[in-house]
Amino acid sequence: MPDGVDSRSAVFDAALDAIVTVNHEGRILEFNAAAEQIFGFSRADACGRLLVETIIPSAFATHIGRGCGATSRPARRWCSGVAST
């Protein structure tokens, strides 16, 4: 890897599958290029939004929304391409 390139970021950005991660509140923290193409949201537009209001069909939103908040472990934010807590 070239200097300054984080291997996790490289894999994240090169993945052909959508990678979307959320925090304990259900807010989107990570949204890769494949997710942008599949779901039609830019990374900037998706990050910070609630998952259930963004890409989950309404028929499943209530069920999935109840699962958020199950952990209080802090998440790392990668939307800007740089990890932060």
SSE layout:
Layout: H1 7-14, E1 20-22, E2 28-31, H2 33-39, H3 43-46, H4 51-54, H5 58-67
Antiparallel strand pairs: 1-2
Describe this structure in words.
Strand 1 and strand 2 (28-31) form a beta hairpin. The longest helix has 10 residues, at 58-67. This protein is 39% helix and 8% strand. The chain has a single domain, classed as PAS domain (Beta-Lactamase), CATH 3.30.450. A two-stranded antiparallel sheet has the order 1-2. Mean pLDDT is 78; it is low at 69-73. The protein has 85 residues and is mainly alpha-helical. It has helices at 7-14, 33-39, 43-46, 51-54, 58-67; strands at 20-22, 28-31. It is globular. It has five helices and two strands; from the N terminus they run αββαααα.
Care to give the gist of this entry?
It contains five helices and two strands.
Relevant terms:
5 helices, Beta-Lactamase, mainly alpha, 8% strand, two-stranded antiparallel sheet, 85 residues, 39% helix, globular, single chain, 2 strands
